[in-house]
Amino acid sequence: MTRHTLIKAMRPSLARTIATLLLTTAWTSPALAEGRSQVAGPRLQGEPNCRFAAPEGWRDHAVRWEGGCVNGKASGPGVLRAYAKHKPTEFFYGRLVDGTPRLGVLEQPDGFVAGEFDQGGAVQSDDRDVAVRALREAAQAAKLASVRFKDKGNEASARFYLGKAEQLDAQLD
């Protein structure tokens, strides 16, 4: 039912009130009048020299980025880690663009979500190619994280991320 149909189905006085509110909102809000969303961009967090937006549902977690930074924002392949009580609980393996997750895999306690991301959430898609690209990007990001940790002398984390890369690669079979 469209907005106009909904208004016609209501009592005339209620319909007039709703129509007036809709018009008033459109006139007083330039963003709405132009069809733009008033929702602000994603909330960036992290170090001042490398900010990023966490995926949906991570607002109550401490989040860390393991990857590159360009112009003060997390960028390229890497891993976002959400922590609860100083333990990693969720991961995003993949590519960030201007500090925002774009393509990769979100690992949650109940499984993986592979695909493209926008505004912190997974974009619904039935296209298998998107999932394959996301899994490949995620595996590459985990491998790079493994190398970074190995270079820092952290063998346990290097093994962990290499194992994740293998697990993500196995999803492609």
Descriptive tags:
39% helix, 6-stranded antiparallel beta sheet, globular, alpha+beta, 5 helices, disordered N terminus, 173 residues, two-stranded antiparallel ribbon, 2 domains
Give a written overview of the molecule.
The protein has a six-stranded antiparallel β-sheet with strand order 3-4-5-6-7-8. A two-stranded antiparallel sheet has the order 1-2. Mean pLDDT is 81; it is low at 1-38. Helix 1 (3-9) runs antiparallel to helix 2 (12-28) and helix 4 (128-151) runs antiparallel to helix 5 (155-170). Strand 4 and strand 5 (87-97) form a beta hairpin. With 173 residues, the chain is α+β, with helices and mostly antiparallel strands. The relative contact order is 0.10. The protein contains five helices and eight strands. It has two domains: 3-33, no CATH class; 44-170, no CATH class. Helices cover 39% and strands 34% of the residues.
